[in-house]
TrEMBL record:
GO biological process, one term: protein transport by the Tat complex
Pfam hit, one: TatA_B_E
Function: Part of the twin-arginine translocation (Tat) system that transports large folded proteins containing a characteristic twin-arginine motif in their signal peptide across membranes. Together with TatC, TatB is part of a receptor directly interacting with Tat signal peptides. TatB may form an oligomeric binding site that transiently accommodates folded Tat precursor proteins before their translocation.
UniProt name for this protein: Sec-independent protein translocase protein TatB
Cellular compartments annotated: Cell membrane; Membrane
GO CC, alphabetical: TAT protein transport complex
UniProt gene name: tatB
Primary localization class, coarse: membrane
Organism: Thiomonas delicata (Thiomonas cuprina)
Keywords recorded for this protein, A-Z: Cell inner membrane, Cell membrane, Membrane, Protein transport, Translocation, Transmembrane, Transmembrane helix, Transport
Binding partners and assembly: The Tat system comprises two distinct complexes: a TatABC complex, containing multiple copies of TatA, TatB and TatC subunits, and a separate TatA complex, containing only TatA subunits. Substrates initially bind to the TatABC complex, which probably triggers association of the separate TatA complex to form the active translocon.
Length: 161
């Protein structure tokens, strides 16, 4: 910190010994050592706080660059999706231009869809359910919940046979 050599420290020690005396010199040396230690700790705290502030400022600048890059990516992705949707819609209109007259002339298409304004809609079943009854029976989908007692009674072996 200071540019003091051994000879200068010796001169300062001799002058302090003469001025303060041998009784007070150890106490004053201890007090000066404590004050120098506190000053060094305070300087280290100030340096670390300045470093933290600089790192925080760097992180904020990085955050802003990452956010701007993310916004750029989001805008380009949204733009590309819009272009693809537009191209798909135009291709869909071209592909279904000849089919719309044919689809309206038939009563029920074979795939279960009705083409109306170029939007596929599912036909309603007569039962009001989307899954056919034969499939539900085959897949063993229960439509009614049974209580525990009803389940036991249903699966109990019959004794009269």
């Amino acid at each position: 910190m200071f540019d003091i050599g051994i000879s200068e420290l010796g001169v300062i020690g001799v002058v302090a010994l003469i001025v303060l005396g041998p009784e007070k010199l150890p106490k004053v040396a201890r007090t000066v050592g404590n004050l120098l230690g506190r000053a060094q700790r305070y300087m280290a705290d100030v340096k670390s706080e300045v470093n933290r502030q600089m790192e925080l400022e760097e992180l904020r600048s990085m955050k802003s660059t990452v956010e701007s890059a993310a916004q750029d990516i989001q805008s380009t992705v949204a733009k590309n999706i819009g272009e693809v949707n537009h191209e798909f819609d135009s291709a869909w209109r071209e592909a279904t231009a000849g089919l719309s007259g044919e689809a309206q002339s038939t009563d029920a298409p074979s795939d279960g869809f009705i083409l109306d304004n170029h939007k596929p809609k599912r036909l309603k079943k007569s039962t009001g359910q989307a899954v056919p009854l034969w499939y539900r029976r085959q897949a063993r989908v229960r439509s009614h919940a049974l209580s525990g007692a009803a389940r036991v009674a249903r699966h109990r072996p019959r004794s009269g046979l």
